[in-house]
Amino acid sequence: MRTPLIAGNWKMNTDSSSAVALASEIAQRAGEATDAELLVCPPSVYLALVKDALGEAAVGLGAQNMSCQPQGAYTGEISAGMVTDLGAKYVILGHSERRHIFGESDENVNKKTLAALAAGLTPIVCVGELLEEREAGKTAEVIRGQFDGSLAGVTAEQMKSVVLAYEPVWAIGTGKVASPEQAEEVHADLRKQLAERYNGEVAESVRILYGGSVKPDNASELLGQTNVDGALIGGASLKADDFLAIAVAGAAVAQA
Ligand code: PGA
Predict the structure, then answer these.
(1) Which residue owns the Cα nearest ligand 1 atom 1?
(2) For an engineered disulfide with 202, which of 53, 122, 155, 198 has Cβ 3.0 to 4.6 Å away?
(3) Catalytic residue numbers, as ranges
């Protein structure tokens, strides 16, 4: 049984006081969804503040990106060691905004994934197709390419502590959510690739999140799919009510 992971990607939003307020409210209300694992990924400058605000609550902390380098002359970058030093256990890697706005390749994502694993962080490795790729019938091919490229050299043992996220680029921040069937088709294919590349045990243990316009009103259906093990939430994660409503939907599915 895979525990659903409900992860909030705050992106470049909030300021120090609203980040603390949001984290505090989620921490206070975490008990509403005890059958789901909750995670917040604030801007990295607020990691320490958010960590404090979360206190002892059962809410994890993650970064949204990191460098593949351990230290040195890399102006503006943060290392895996810095992320763990601030108490974060997760890091989102290869988010479509990193891939498409900042030009990150599968090779970059792969180096970061290996660096995160070496530092003891759980990477949330994102994959997803563009609208034109879907319309050209290339979704499976694109996702397979990103899977192979982003996870090159990751061992079966390491893979058990990786989380995958399928985020169709056309669904991110657009309000156009993938249908539960579209999501399930890609998730099932990802699990098949895990079984082919690794083994059945790895395939059964890796959590595959869906991301892209997840909201309280579509969460139950998406999270109810066999191979959807949680959500990576952007816009709706900035409102505690919405984030927790999605988490409650995830917890309900876990109990069912
Ligand atoms: P969204 O973003 O929920 O605002 O569509 C999802 C994501 O980018 O992780």
Answers:
(1) 234
(2) 198
(3) 95, 167
Counting the structural domains of the chain, the total is: 1
pLDDT greater than 90 at residue 256: no
CA 84/CA 90 separation, integer angstroms: 8
Between CA 207 and CA 56 the distance in angstroms is 24
Give the atom of ligand 1 at the shortest distance from the alpha carbon of 172: 5
**Interval 191-232: pLDDT, tens:** 999 999 999 999 999 999 999 999 999 999 999 999 999 999
Report the pLDDT averaged over residues 20-43.
97
As for ligand 1, residues whose beta carbon falls within 6 Å of it are: 9, 167, 172-173, 211-214, 232-236
Task: Find the domain containing 44 and state its range.
Answer: 5-255
CATH of the domain at 75: 3.20.20.70
Task: Please give the pLDDT value at position 254.
Answer: 81
> Cβ contacts of residue 244 below 8 Å, gap of 6+?
26, 29, 32, 33
CA dist list (Å): 54 to 29, 30, 51: 11, 10, 5
Looking from the CA of residue 232, the nearest atom of ligand 1 is 9
